[in-house]
Amino acid sequence: MQPIDVVVLTKNSEYLLEKCLAAVYENVPIKNLIVVDGFSTDRTAKIINKTNETHGNVKLVRVNGSRGRAREKGIQQVTTDWFMFVDSDVILGRDWFKKAEKNVEKNIGAVWGVNIDLVPNVKDKRILKLQSIIARLCFSLRGGMHDTLIRREAVDGIRIPEQLHAYEDTYIINWIKKKGYKTVIGDDIYCLHFKPPRSWNLKNGVSQAMVEFRCGVVYSHMYEYMFLYPVFMFQWFIHLSLQGAQELLQP
To answer: Distance between CA atoms of 28 and 45, rounded to whole angstroms?
Structure first.
């Protein structure tokens, strides 16, 4: 397969962005790196400029709006037959693209790599294995865009509802399926998902949960996905026991 465009969404992503982009360039043949930024106020822009100085193929687009709008804008910039979405809070596994392209067939519209959510200070392999199982189940129910190889033809003409700041991945996966393509979980491809430090703050955690509920249940009608909410709360209890309530209550 020829080099592909890679779309990365950012907003105040400095905490992991350099490592994220380094892993992308190491594991994916890139024609253009398309960064869709939500008007970051931290060092994100400087990191992007530095990356462009090194590689010379970075295109920066700024979008003020939901994640759904940002993904749609990114798709509109794509010029290659296949492209990738890579979230700015993940690190791709080794040989990601080389392994992913083995899953490409005429009826395939998207190849997804398992995203393993890392809980701070938890390195137990049994828990990481459980995270992988949960991630696969999540994808089967709602899809995912953390690290996804997509056939551009399969998303031609897509218009993602503006209100989808979450579950925009569900909309994209369903669109691809309606086009007559299959979406698959790639063999032995994955990314490590490092949620932003602010995600482990109680106030922001509750706010994110409300967004998930509104976009998932009210807008997307993903009622079956609600059964996984207790599992996500269990992650919080693990972190609570390790970090203590004081950190979670910080503003």
So the answer is: 22
Give the pairing of strands 4-10 and 30-37.
Answer: parallel
In whole angstroms, give the CA distance from residue 169 to residue 228.
Answer: 17
- CATH code of residue 147: 3.90.550.10
Q: Kindly report the three-state secondary structure assignment for every residue of 23-58.
A: HHHHHCCEEEEEEEECCCCCCHHHHHHHHHHHHCCE
CB atoms within 10 A of CB 181: 20
> What angle in degrees, to the nearest 10, is found between the helix axes of 44-55 and 17-27?
30
pTM attached to this predicted model: 0.81
Banded pLDDT at 244 (limits 50, 70, 90) = very low
Q: Cβ of 119: how many Cβ atoms within 10 Å?
A: 19
Q: Is residue 170 part of a domain?
A: yes
Residue 106 lies in a domain: yes
| Cβ–Cβ under 8 Å, residues 111 and 184 | yes
- Please state, in angstroms and as integers, the Cα–Cα distance from residue 62 to each residue in 15, 36, 56, 155, following that order: 19, 6, 18, 21
Neighbours of 51 (CB within 10 A): 22
User: For the chain, how many structural domains are there in total?
Assistant: 1
**Predicted confidence (pLDDT) per residue in 117-162, tens digit:** 776 555 666 766 666 666 666 666 666 789 999 999 999 999 999 9
Cβ contacts of 62 within 8 Å, gap of 6 or more: 36, 37, 38, 39
